[in-house]
Amino acid sequence: MQQIAYFLLTVSVLVVWHELGHYWAARRCGVRVQRFSLGFGPVLLSRVSRKTGVEWAVSAVPLGGYVAMDEGRSSADDRTAASPGHFSAQPLSNRAFIIAAGPLANLILAAVLYWLIAVVGSTATAPQLARSTEGSLFARAGFTEPVQVLSVDDESVLSLRDASMRLLSRATARDQVNVRVRPLGATSMDGKVLTLDFSGLSRADIDGNILSRLGMVPYAGPAVIAEVSAGGAAAAAGLQPGDRVLQAGEVAIESGADLASIVRASPERALSLTVLRAGQTLQLSIVPKLSAGSVRTGVIGVRFTGPERVTERFEPLAAVAVAAKQTWDMTAMTVRMLWQIATGQAALSNLSGPITIADVATQSASFGLISFLSFLAVVSVGLFVFNLLPIPQLDGGHLLYFAYEAMTGRAPSERALLLGQRVGLIVLGLVMAIALSNDVIRRLPAS
């Protein structure tokens, strides 16, 4: 129910804003708007504005909404005789403006959300990476020890999210990128430059969590214990909050994830731990207990402090440039990904449908308002790009017809419009089927 609620909230906010763009542009051009509906299907509630004559309605199917305009005559030859309040009687430039205003509203909303997030500020994970997976692209580039990411192509980064977005953009573009890093704990401020070459990525590489597949591993923070569970193996061994685990046997422990991996593989087997406590080094022996799950793994009952956190906040004027860049980067990456999917350069599994949107909406909301607003901005950019695709049922399809009219001086024939509608329905049906299939596959348990 929570997922459904957040999905409906996401769709309602973004689609209503989209339709408000059409509504505002139509009113600016003098077109009569008959109804503005939240949702589709039978009208449940409605109210007609005495001032504008617009019927504001709530309909039964809460999946979006629509603006019903007075279409008037559809024939280009009769347009001059039609009422100026008819959509079809408007000049071509006005009709294109009204149609384009919906997607543009989504783009503006994304920019406003990014600006608001930048001004209010958000807490994010520090731009730190752990030792990369052996043999991976990141490992071959030199990410073989925990590092702090300082810049990507000479642009400084403030958070792991920032660094990830820039690297993801370069990866989908199959570019080469220079990353300046500094080993964690190093005193030098200059660091060193590591070069990631994404030019050789295959279609299979551009699939799912791309950076993780290529060996990028976020640093989980040092193995500093934040909490010890009563009655657990850690409590029995004498571990305390604030202890930092340096070694497990002869293996150096760089992060809590390193120790967790060793513990999981060592149920009911004694481990020798080297621990730093209040400046003193201690040797402790611990026997991980067998977990209660069906898989035989070890547990010791501790929680680690986690990765370092940073705060991103900008002055209102500086936030304008930040928001503009984020909006541009997200738009460019979305367009690039769709193009690569369409041309077979990226896997179809990158398409997501309503189930994934509901999942991510719920997850982002669980992290707080700022996280949810960031999610809304990403989806709003996606709606902007998707609605401009040259498919007849979408705004991009209407703009394609208008482009034809501008070049030929006449509107497309009824036969062409009907054929376009049929082809568009098939294309949209296929896209939705693929997206829903991907959603279902993601939910299936891994074999």
From TrEMBL:
<keyword id="KW-0378">Hydrolase</keyword>
<keyword id="KW-0482">Metalloprotease</keyword>
<feature type="domain" description="PDZ">
    <location>
        <begin position="212"/>
        <end position="279"/>
    </location>
</feature>
<feature type="transmembrane region" description="Helical">
    <location>
        <begin position="6"/>
        <end position="25"/>
    </location>
</feature>
<dbReference type="Pfam" id="PF02163">
    <property type="entry name" value="Peptidase_M50"/>
</dbReference>
<dbReference type="InterPro" id="IPR008915">
    <property type="entry name" value="Peptidase_M50"/>
</dbReference>
<protein>
    <recommendedName>
        <fullName>Zinc metalloprotease</fullName>
        <ecNumber>3.4.24.-</ecNumber>
    </recommendedName>
</protein>
<dbReference type="GO" id="GO:0008237">
    <property type="term" value="F:metallopeptidase activity"/>
</dbReference>
<keyword id="KW-0472">Membrane</keyword>
<keyword id="KW-0479">Metal-binding</keyword>
<comment type="similarity">
    <text>Belongs to the peptidase M50B family.</text>
</comment>
<dbReference type="InterPro" id="IPR004387">
    <property type="entry name" value="Pept_M50_Zn"/>
</dbReference>
<dbReference type="InterPro" id="IPR036034">
    <property type="entry name" value="PDZ_sf"/>
</dbReference>
<dbReference type="Pfam" id="PF17820">
    <property type="entry name" value="PDZ_6"/>
</dbReference>
<feature type="transmembrane region" description="Helical">
    <location>
        <begin position="367"/>
        <end position="389"/>
    </location>
</feature>
<dbReference type="InterPro" id="IPR041489">
    <property type="entry name" value="PDZ_6"/>
</dbReference>
<dbReference type="InterPro" id="IPR001478">
    <property type="entry name" value="PDZ"/>
</dbReference>
<keyword id="KW-0645">Protease</keyword>
<feature type="domain" description="PDZ">
    <location>
        <begin position="113"/>
        <end position="185"/>
    </location>
</feature>
<keyword id="KW-1133">Transmembrane helix</keyword>
<feature type="transmembrane region" description="Helical">
    <location>
        <begin position="416"/>
        <end position="437"/>
    </location>
</feature>
<feature type="transmembrane region" description="Helical">
    <location>
        <begin position="96"/>
        <end position="117"/>
    </location>
</feature>
<keyword id="KW-0862">Zinc</keyword>
<keyword id="KW-0812">Transmembrane</keyword>
